[in-house]
Amino acid sequence: MRHEFKSRWGYVFIRCLKGVCPLFPNLGFPQQRVIESKYFTLEFPRECELVEFAQKINVNYFLQMDIPSSDTKNFDSIISKTLDALYLEVSDILDIHIYSYHGKIKVYPNKEKLKENVFRNYPGQKYNLPSVYIHSDNAIHISLADLTLGMLAHEIAHAIISHYFVVPPPAKVQEVLTGYVEYSIRKSAGTLPSR
Ligand SMILES: [Zn+2]
User: Fold this and answer.
1) CATH for 31-189, among 3.30.70, 1.10.238, 3.40.390, 3.30.1150?
2) I need a labelling partner for 25 at 20 to 30 A (CA). Which of 32, 48, 65, 93 fits?
3) Degrees, nearest 5: CA angle 37-38-41
4) What separation in Å is there between the alpha carbon of 177 and the centre of ligand 1?
5) Distance, CA 155 to ligand 1 centroid (Å)?
6) Which residue has the higher pLDDT, 89 or 194?
């Protein structure tokens, strides 16, 4: 009995060391890096590189600076400032300003991981999207492999629209607005393909 008890706790301890604790799932090593900004809580997978995220959301366009390749200590603040600047730019394009807004951005390494974590709750549906905003958990889910500035702006626009209207507009109306935001951001950041 005593031996069984001990080995069970030994098992729990080892699982906790590996970061997967069956009793206290939040203990152990965190699987994600969390960056807070005024408007967002960013959850970023530990196995991915923040520099890739920073490049893809055009940090240099928003902060008018080059991404420091060696100085990664200040990376959290560079990313949080960029996310807030992007939020304010999307708000300006929509002319909807919700200064009390705060939502989540959850990053996954790729579409497969996003599908596994988010769309498994929708069996039978063939979701294979690189990004999605889910209003019920106020979260943008996005694949790092597919991420673009326009894509993140599009999802932020969904979040703002859904919070502004008491009854969120129908999907097709939202797509027209979010498509316009995506186009405008890409135009000002210079990421539209040249003709
Ligand atoms: Zn959309």
Assistant:
1) 3.40.390
2) 48
3) 45
4) 9
5) 6
6) 89
Q: How far is the CA of 175 from the centre of ligand 1 (A)?
A: 5
Going from the Cα of 157 to the center of ligand 1, the distance in angstroms, rounded, reads: 8
H-run or E-run covering 127? none
Q: For the chain, give every domain's residue range.
A: 1-30, 31-189
Cα distance between residue 111 and residue 18, in whole Å:
25
CA of 34 to the centre of ligand 1 (A): 25
162-190 residue pLDDT tens: 999 999 899 999 999 999 999 999 998 88
User: Which tokens hold the place of 172?
Assistant: 């097709």
Centre of ligand 1 from the C-alpha of residue 125, in Å: 17
**Phi/psi of residue 18, nearest 5 degrees:** -80, -5
pLDDT of residue 1 exceeding 50, the answer is no
Please tell me whether residue 154 adopts helix, strand or coil conformation.
Answer: helix
Distance from residue 173's CA to the centre of ligand 1 (Å): 10
**Helix (H/G/I), strand (E/B), else coil: 131:** strand
Give the tens place of pLDDT for each residue, 81-119.
999 999 999 999 999 999 999 999 999 999 999 998 888
> In this structure, are residues 149 and 186 in contact, taking their beta carbons and an 8 Å threshold?
yes
